[in-house]
Structures are given as structure tokens and as C-alpha cells.
Amino acid sequence: MIVRPPVNWLRLLFVWRGSVLPAILPQLLLMLFVSTVALETGGRIAGAKLPLDTAAFPLLGVSLAIFLAFRNNASYQRFTEARLCWGQLLIAARALTSQAISCFAAQPAALNQALFQRRLIAVVYALKHQLRGTDPMPELAGLLDAPELALLRGRSFLPVALLDAVRQMLVQAALRPPARGEVLMVLDRQVNALGAAVGACERISSTPIPYGYGVLLHRTVYLYCFLLPFGLVDAIGVATPLITVFVAYTFFALEAIAEQVAEPFGTAPNCLALNALTRQIERSVCEQYGVPMPAALQPDAGFRID
Amino acid sequence: MIVRPPVNWLRLLFVWRGSVLPAILPQLLLMLFVSTVALETGGRIAGAKLPLDTAAFPLLGVSLAIFLAFRNNASYQRFTEARLCWGQLLIAARALTSQAISCFAAQPAALNQALFQRRLIAVVYALKHQLRGTDPMPELAGLLDAPELALLRGRSFLPVALLDAVRQMLVQAALRPPARGEVLMVLDRQVNALGAAVGACERISSTPIPYGYGVLLHRTVYLYCFLLPFGLVDAIGVATPLITVFVAYTFFALEAIAEQVAEPFGTAPNCLALNALTRQIERSVCEQYGVPMPAALQPDAGFRID
Amino acid sequence: MIVRPPVNWLRLLFVWRGSVLPAILPQLLLMLFVSTVALETGGRIAGAKLPLDTAAFPLLGVSLAIFLAFRNNASYQRFTEARLCWGQLLIAARALTSQAISCFAAQPAALNQALFQRRLIAVVYALKHQLRGTDPMPELAGLLDAPELALLRGRSFLPVALLDAVRQMLVQAALRPPARGEVLMVLDRQVNALGAAVGACERISSTPIPYGYGVLLHRTVYLYCFLLPFGLVDAIGVATPLITVFVAYTFFALEAIAEQVAEPFGTAPNCLALNALTRQIERSVCEQYGVPMPAALQPDAGFRID
Amino acid sequence: MIVRPPVNWLRLLFVWRGSVLPAILPQLLLMLFVSTVALETGGRIAGAKLPLDTAAFPLLGVSLAIFLAFRNNASYQRFTEARLCWGQLLIAARALTSQAISCFAAQPAALNQALFQRRLIAVVYALKHQLRGTDPMPELAGLLDAPELALLRGRSFLPVALLDAVRQMLVQAALRPPARGEVLMVLDRQVNALGAAVGACERISSTPIPYGYGVLLHRTVYLYCFLLPFGLVDAIGVATPLITVFVAYTFFALEAIAEQVAEPFGTAPNCLALNALTRQIERSVCEQYGVPMPAALQPDAGFRID
Amino acid sequence: MIVRPPVNWLRLLFVWRGSVLPAILPQLLLMLFVSTVALETGGRIAGAKLPLDTAAFPLLGVSLAIFLAFRNNASYQRFTEARLCWGQLLIAARALTSQAISCFAAQPAALNQALFQRRLIAVVYALKHQLRGTDPMPELAGLLDAPELALLRGRSFLPVALLDAVRQMLVQAALRPPARGEVLMVLDRQVNALGAAVGACERISSTPIPYGYGVLLHRTVYLYCFLLPFGLVDAIGVATPLITVFVAYTFFALEAIAEQVAEPFGTAPNCLALNALTRQIERSVCEQYGVPMPAALQPDAGFRID
């Protein structure tokens, strides 16, 4: 995620960091080359004039608009879904912490609060690593003791295993007299909210936007852009490369951003900052327990935070 | 579902597997033929000039854009709905498993955990087969014993019958002292979540997008494409077949993808990978119980997973 | 609802049943007449040339696109809402059945299961008839006995009355020792889900899309279509009637489908098949109780099912 | 709300009641005047030709389409939100009534059912008056006795005060042995559903669409329409006033409807019929209690119901 | 937020307060300058003609429409999300107040109602200050006593800390015999609703719209507007500055409003009026308790309320 203090409208035109321009530069240079060739040859390919005119392009514009708008909306919807899941993690982790503290305030023996707190945070860390395909063990080693870690090694669904351990602690405590049965229900609901967020994150990862859409959009955009200079050259002459590259920039850039946003758990600049979100949940739970909390993550020199 | 490692932008232009091109090739060849005829005859039909010009097509573009965008969005919404249902199945199956393990940990006699686990997985398998219209018995035979299978044979709503059996086990266990009544509520909620996902999947199957939309879109797209070369030929001459086929490709391909996506439980390349999702749920529940779990499904050589 | 096996792309162009063409044929013939007149007179009205050209129409296209897209989306949203309500009816009826069977399995005297089952099904039938404005008594007579029917006659909110009776039975059974209080909550939630679906269906009927939208769209579409041939005749000559009727077809047909879909409980070809959905709920509840179930409804010769 | 029996397509073109034409007539006449002047002067202002041509307008069309579509969708979303709130009121009022009758059937002394019923209906009436800014006292006087009315006079949040009184009665009854504690939860949920609907209605009133949008749209529409005749006059001559007024009608009318729909609790023709909805809730609750119910509201001669 | 009584359509054209015109005036003047230069030079840059014509702009219009519509919708969605959160705060605060009063009516010793009330209101104030980045202590000092304030000073998640304190009071009271366990559940649900609203507000702040979108839109809009006069000058001559500035106004203004709306907790004119909403919640809770309530906030002379 790019977190950048607002810049004025003029500087924003020339921003490099946070822009997707670097990622699409090769294709744009290619378009510059193609349109210059079209300009030089007067729109001829191997000596034969390709008699396109600007009237042909709005016909393609209908499809292009639908594909681009759909692709972008579907991608952003996935980003929003991911945002909601991580918001739910924060909300449920806090509620569960608050309930565990309040409900067992009079029964200190019922629940090992310190262990519960560390396992709860471990759920979030494990989920982050599962979604990013990274190794959770180094970070979990700071939260769980060695025997527990050993048991978890090799698990395919690590956040689920940790959440099950959290539930087990809470159910045991809640079913132990003189605790009231209602405490079970109250806690169970939040554990389920955590489980729902975990499952929803996996769902985002395991059901991408159908592949056919991407192929169709990609082909349409590129073919359109390759034909464009041949359609423009008779009408706007030397301005052809300028307009062609500008049009191509808008399409390629949108495709590039949409691709990043559609996999919101990645590490591209426009993905969610899972590390920061994980840290925020940890910090909040720590503060609720009144234990020292780690510092919040800060953006790096490139205004990135991941 | 197509699961393909990212390819670079150039190769993506020529991807065959995962594209809908094969499915619409005949129609595209027909369009190539029609537009070549229009080019040869200079836009004449039986000797009479069809005096269309490009100005007529944007008038049709309004309708076409609305129909295509609507059709595609409505289809994708059904795909999303289906994704959410299967996500809910995963979430609820895990939560129920975790609850059943925790809540009856101190009462091993109350619930036959092994039977419960197999029935729970059987619900998901039965749903998959119902949605795909395939025979569930071979796969269920690995989960349930013969007498139970015999009772289920011929059932119209097999997942419901299995879920009722799951509920019966849980209610009996939860109402049996010294279990607390709250356990009933906690379990009941997750059983209902499973039932809701089952019913929602049936709803997707039983209420398709109203038939009239498909007919209207289909006719508009085809008539538009057939007229197009006659409108273009005077303006762009030899480029007519190129542009016509390109425009037709974008429309036909979107219609084809939307058709696949609208029936998300089918087996077309852009449908949901129900087999993989079912297996994922089975694997997760098995891991929660600590029993050996089957391997995850892998994409085949054509990058498909179903 | 039209349920038609897939036909190939060519036959789909000439489908009659399931298309809205019959409903808009008179208006299309009128458009054919108007455009032929415009062609014959060269765009003159009473001898005076109406100097429209094609440039004027895209200006209207903006409004037209917004009105058509909005109207269609708002209509389809109502259709979707209705789908969800009937899905919820199915889900809640099943869950309630399953709960009633499980929770009172050990207390056969607490609940008259046969009566409960028939009343539950009667709720759904009563709702269907209320939404369609038909007489529920013939169908209810097969489910309820004469004294109960007599009490219900003349009720304005029949499904509510039946649902209240269902609730009364369940609350009595759940509050009767030794039943646990939690059973009350578990059942109450599903009764409320049924009530919510009933209320939501009434809401769809009682709050139509604001009338002004329909008038505005209708006027814009018709005025546009009447002016169109005068704008086209100079540019495309003899092709004017073809294009005019084609454009008019797309607008009139979309308006016609949207009108059907906006009242999803009607009996037009693109409405929901309430009879089939009602029967499906009945069949599922019957199968859960293990009693003989009626046959599923089948589409008629015209591929319709209502 | 306009409730009008369907009229045929021809009559619908000339409908006056239910159309927003009356509200925008002055502006349309002004546009007729402006475009006639432009026609007479050949597009000159103070002798100087304003050299607009039709090519300039599609550039503005992009913004206009986005503003109009957004404004309309945001407005309709508020209308939909309001519909859902009133649907929820109906659903929750019925469920609460049904629960209160069933749960206290065996404890007639626990709850004064008649008082409860009148207070419940009073909540809905009070909400209606709060939303419309009218005086609730006359209608409440028919439901509540004088001392209670006196206490309520001057309250800023009258529906909340009444709902609190409803809750108080129910909590007292539910906490009074031998009532089971679960009854409290069951009732509390529906009281909260009513409170949520009340709060959501206030939210609609207190957070309008940001003011800037309306100003921006308004200016764009009017400036566009004022410039339009100068752009059209060279191309379409005497048809300029016709097309200008037609285009202006579509924009002004959409803006006018969207304005009405955005404040769904108002009394304009396209707002919600709060009186009818309130009456419907009252009727349903009365029927549930088996007491005489008032007649349903009917549309007046102008097909309006408010 | 701008709360302005309706003005007639003519005055609305010239509204200054509530319009974003002041914020974009510099850029508009620049566009006026650029387009005047283009007019004077006949579209030449450094003596060389930039041969753009109007046909090139619709090609860019596709991207522009998608970017603007997306940006605006995504921004408004965040505004709506924020509205819903604050609506939920109001609803949950009222419900909790009402429950606390009713449930402990017979046990005055269980809960310190006055302290509870002040802490509940403090949660809302603390949230407002956290979202706006302002110092909460001055306002909290009127609600909480000094020792409690001292404990809260330096907290990173102040609303969470206060909500935890609220929960603690309620759980203690609810677990204290003879209170019924169900009271715990009833209260817990509303505390969680408050916590969910707090977390959702933080989510809005911590996950902005991906940065890349803003950069892409900004560049496209400005480059388009700078090129526009060169494309228009041959076609519309002296009208070029008028149309250029008009087009630029619509784009810049939409970008400016969308930017304000996307950060709904800010203090720009189109943000949410958090002070007014906070006060409304305070007033409602005070009225429920029957204690004197502060006056509602009123718009200032510029029709603003924040």
C-alpha cells in the first residue's frame, strides 16, 4: 500500500512512486515505436495502406469500455472483500479479548489469559503468512512455545488449527462451573467471526476472477492499441504517437492496477498492507491487556507499507 | 476453473487454453466469410447496395452496451453468489467441527465423532453431485456404510437428508445431560449455516437469469455483426474483414464467457472448481480431527481444475 | 419462467417462445410504417423537410442509456430480491422442519408433527396466492381441515395468520417442560426467518419502482424512435426501415422484459415460477418427514413453468 | 407514490399525473425560447456567431452521463434503503406481536397486551411524523391515553421514547418468573430490529447526498442545455427547438425525479407512501390481535397515495 | 456537510458556498490561459501545428469515463460505509441504553447508570477525535472524572479502551445474581455492535482507495484537458476557451468532490458532519435517561455543519 501525504495537483502529475508507470513502460515504448512507424509509413504495412479511419474505433470502444469497467470493478470488489475480512478480524479479535477479560474477571483460574492472548495474535499472523505463501514459523516463534510450534509444523490450515486451540481454551473455561452457559455463546460467536474471516480470505485466494475475462480483455486492449495509429495517422498526422501512447497508457495502467488489486493479499504497491494490519491487531489486543505493544509500522522512503 | 501461472503480456495474447476462442471459432469464421463477401461485392446484397454507413452503428451501440454489460454483470453476480455459498460451506463445516470437538470433549459418549465427521463431509459431496447432476453414490460409498447408503438412495434432496442426520446427532448429544442447553444453540447455528448454503446453491440452479434477456442479447449481437461489414466497407475497404472479425470476437467471446459464468456449478473452463472446493473442505475437516487427509486436487496439463 | 434446453446459436436467433417479440409486435409494425413513410417522403412531414441528421441522436443517447440501464437494473434488482426471499423460505422451512423433528424426538406428545407440517406448507401456499392475487382456498383445503379454513377465510394477511399458528404450536411445545428454553430460541429464529421472507415479498409488491421513471423512459424511447427515421433517411436511404426497426426492437424489448421482471411475482414468461418454487418447498418438507411427496412441476410444451 | 393501473403504450406517452412534467415546465419553456432565439439569429449572440458544432457536445456527454447516472443511482439507493427500513418495521412489528401473544399466552397477567399493541403501533406513527416533520399528537391521541401523551410532548426522539416504553413492558414481563429467560432474548431481538429501523430512517434524513454533487450536476445540465441550440442550429436548422427541448426534458426530468427519490420520506409523487405503509403495519398488527382494523388507504383520483 | 434550504433552479446555478468551485479555481484559470493561447496561435506550439481533431478525444473518453465513474463510485461507497457506521453507533448506543435501563430496573445497585451513560457517550466522542486526529481530552473532561482521564491518556485505541470499560460494567452487573444470564447476551450483542462500528471506522481510515487509481485519473484528466483546446480550435474557434473551461470544470470538480467524499471523516464541506452526529447520539442517550440534553448543532452562516 502506498501511503503518501497529499501533494499538489501539479506534482501529482509527475509522481513516480505509487504510480504503475514503471510496470508498463516496456509496452508503452513498444507502442511509441509502432505509432512512429505508422506515422513514417503513412499507415502502410509492407507497402499496403491499412485503410482504417477513426470511425472504426468507437465500435470497439463499446466492448473495451465494458471489459475494462467490469475487470476493474470485479477486481476492486475483491479488494473491498479483503478489506472487510481484515476489518472483521480486528473487530472480532478485540471483542473476544474484551469478553475474555470481562467474563472471567472473577475466575482467574478458568482461563490462562496470557496464553490465550498469544494464541489469538498467532491466528492473525498465521493467516497473513498463509495468504502470502511465506513461512510463519519465525514470527510464530515469538508467540508460541516450542512444543506447540512443533505440533503445528506441517499443518496445511495453520490459522484454523490455532483458532481451534483458542476455541478449546474458551469452551473449557466457559463450561467450567460456576461460569454461566451464556458465556459460551457470547464467546463462541466471536470465535466464529474470526473463523469466518479466515475462511473468507481463503475464498478470495482460491476463487480468482475467471481466467477467460483476463485473456479477452488483454487481447482486446492490445489489438486495439496496435491498430490505433493506423486509424489516426490520416487524421492527426504527427500527433499520432502522442495520442496513441496516451490512450495505451490509460488502458495498460488500468489493466495493471486491476491485476494488483484483484489479488489483494499480494505485495504489489496497490495491495493491502497485511503486515501493517496484522501489527495493528496485535497492538490493539496488547493494549487491551495492558501489556507493552510493538510499534506501528511506518511507510518506507518510497511511501510504501506492506 | 483455469489456474495458470502468470505469463508475460506477449504470450497472453496467444493463449489457447483458458480462452473461449475454441468455442466461438465457427461463428467467427462465418463472420470472416460474410465480411469478405461484403468486401468483394462492395456492400451489395443480390446486386442492391445496402447503404449503411458507420453513423448508424453507434445508435445500436447504446442497446448493445446495456445488454452486454447487464448480461455479464448478472452472470458474474451469480458466480459471486456461488463463491460465497461454497465459502460459507467451508466456514460452517470448520466451525461445526471445531465446536463438536470442543463442546463434547468431556463427554466422549455423547457424540460418535467419527460418524459425525464422515456425515458432515458427505453433505458437501452430496451437494456437489446434486448441483452437477452426477451420481453421488460412488463417492458417498467411501464415507457412509451400506445400510445408510441404502436409505439415502432415491432421495430427491440428498444433502438435506444428510444434514438432517447430522443435526439429529448433534441435537441428541446437546440435549443429553449434563450438556448445557447453550451447546444446542451454538451447534444449531452452524447447522443452519450449512443448510442455508445448500439452499442458496439450489436457488442459483433453480432461478436462472430470465430467458428473454439471453434471446434479446443474442439477436442484437448477431444482427449487429452481420450488418457491420456493409456499414464499414465504404469507409475502411480492405480492413473490413479485420475489424468485423475483431468486433465480433469481443462480443461473441463475452457472450460465451457470461454463459459459462452464469451457471457456476457447471464444468466449463470458467465455472467454479467444485471438485477442488469439496476436497478442500474435506481436507480441512480431516486435519481438524487429526485424521489422514486426501491430497489437494492439482490442475491438469491444460491448467484446468474442476 | 422459461426453462428451455440450450439451442445452438443459429436457432436461438429465431426462437419465438420465451422471446418478448410477440408482446411488442404492434409497436414494431408501427415503426416499420413510420420509417417507410419517412423513406418515401424523403424525411418530409406535410411537405416540410425535418432537417435532422445523425449527429443529433447521440445527444439523446446519453439520457437513453442512463434511463434504460437504470430501469433494467432496478427491475432486475427486484427480481433478485424476490429470488432471495423465496430461497429464504426454502431454507427456513427446511431448517424449521429439521429442528422440529430433532428437538421433539424424545417428546412426541409436545408437538403434533403432522399438523405442524401441513401448516408450514400452507404458509408458503398462502403467500403464493397473496402475491398473485389468486384464491388460496382450493389449495389450502388439501392441507387444513374445514374449521381452520373457516377461521382463516376473509383474513387480509393470510400467511401471517398461518405463521402465527405455527409459532403458537412451537412456543407451546418449547415452553412445556422438560423441553429446554434454548429450543424456543432455536425455533423462534427460523419462524422469524419465514416471517421476514413473507414481509419482504409484500414489500416488493407494495413499493414499486417510482412511477415517474417509467413514464420518462417510455416517452424518451418512443419519441427517439419516431424521430429516428427522419434523421437516418438522408444518410442510409433504403436501409432506414431496417435500422429503425432494429433499434426500436432493442429498446421496446428491453422495456418489455424490464416491466415483467420488475413484478417478479406475476405470471409473465420472465417472472418467477412461484408454483414450481412452492412445490419444491412442499416436496422438500415432505421428504424430510418421510411422507409421500407430490411430483415436481414440469415445463409445458412452450417451455414455460409458472 | 403513484399507483396507477397499467395503461397502454400510447396513452402512457400522454400521461400527466405521475409525470414530473408539471414541475419542470417553466424551465422547458425557457429552453424553447432560447432555442427559438438561436434559430432566429442563426446562432448569434449580440451579433457574434458562437461557432459551436455538434462535435463539442459528446466531450461534455462523458461528464454528464457520469453525473446523471451517479446522482440517480445514489438517489434510488436512498429510496431502496428507506423501503428496506419500512419493510423491516413491518416484519419486526409482526414478529414481536406474534411472540408477545405466544410467549405470554399462559401468563395473561405478565403483559398488558392491549396497551402493548397500542404502543407498538404508536412507535410507527411517531416515526412517520418525525420523518415528515408533522405533528404526531393528533394521531397518537387515538392510541395513547392523555397522561402518557403529556409525558411524551416535547420529546425530540419520540419513536425512541415509545420504543423504550415497549421494551420496558416486555423486559418486565420476561424477567418475571415463571417466564423463561430465553423469552427475554427472543423479544429483545425484535425490539432491536425496530430500533434499528428507526435509527436507519433518521440516518437517511440526517446524511443527505453531499451538496456539491447536486450543484455540479445542476450547473452542468443547464449550461449544456443553454449551449446546445447554438451547436445544433447549423446542422439541423428548424429542428433545433424540437431536439433542444427534448434533450432538456430528459435531463431536467431525471434531475427532478432523482431529487424526489433522494428524500424518500417526503410527500412528492415519487416518494414512499408512508401513510399507506403505516396503515398497513397497523392493520396487520390489529389482525394478529383479532381486533377490528382500519381500512387500507386507497389512491386518490390522481392515482396518488401518500 | 452543507445543509442548505432548497433554492430555485436559477439561484442554484450561482451558488458559491457548498460548491467546490473555490478549490479548483486556480486550475480553471490555468485552463482558460492555455485555451486562450491555443486560440491565439491557432493551435500551434512553438510554431508547429498540433494537428489534433475532435475525433481523437472520444478515444480517450472511454478511459476517462471509466476512471471518473470508478473513482467517484468508490469514493461514495466509502462515504456510505461511514454513514452506515455512524448510523450503527446511534442505533447500538440507544439500544444499549434502553436495555441497561430496563434490565437493571429492579436492581439499582447492579449498575451505576450515570457512570455508564457518561462512558457510553465518551466512546462516541473518543471515536470522533480519533478519526479526525484531534485531541479528545477537552471534551472527555466534561464526561469522565480526572483519575479515569489520567488512565486513558496516551492510549492508542481510546474508543476501544472506553468500550472495554463499558463492557466490564455491564458484564459485572449481568453476572451478578439474581440477574439472569440472558441479560449478558442481550447486552453483549449491543456492545459488540458498538465495537464493530468503531473497528469499521478505523478500517475506512486505514485502507484508502489504492493510490495508483488517483494518480492514473489525475494524469488522464489533466493531459486530456491540456490537449483539448488544440483539438477544438479548428472546429469551434472563439468558443474554444468556453468549452475547454466548461469540460475542465466538470472533470476537476468531480475529482475534487470525490477526494473529499473518499475521506468521509475529514472536515471538508462534503464530509460527514461528525460533530453533529456525535451530538445527536449524545442528545438521544440523554433523553432516554431523562437528563438535560445539549442543544443540537446548527449550520453556520455558510450553511456548514461539521
Topology:
The structure is a homopentamer.
Chain A (H helix, E strand, L loop, with lengths): L8 H4 L8 H21 L2 E2 L2 E2 L6 H48 L9 H20 L4 H5 L4 H7 L5 H18 L5 H26 L4 H26 L3 H23 L11 H16 L17
What would you say this structure looks like, in words?
The structure is a homopentamer of 306-residue chains. By secondary structure, chain A is mainly α. Chain A has one domain. Chain A is built from eleven helices and two strands, in the order H-H-E-E-H-H-H-H-H-H-H-H-H. Chain A has a two-stranded antiparallel sheet. In chain A, helix 3 (56-103) runs antiparallel to helix 4 (113-132) and helix 7 packs antiparallel against helix 8. The model of chain A has no long low-confidence stretch (mean pLDDT 93). Chains in contact: A-B, A-E, B-C, C-D, D-E. The interface between A and B is large, with 63 and 77 residues.
In a few lines, what is going on in this structure?
The structure is a homopentamer of 306-residue chains. Chain A has 306 residues and is mainly alpha-helical.
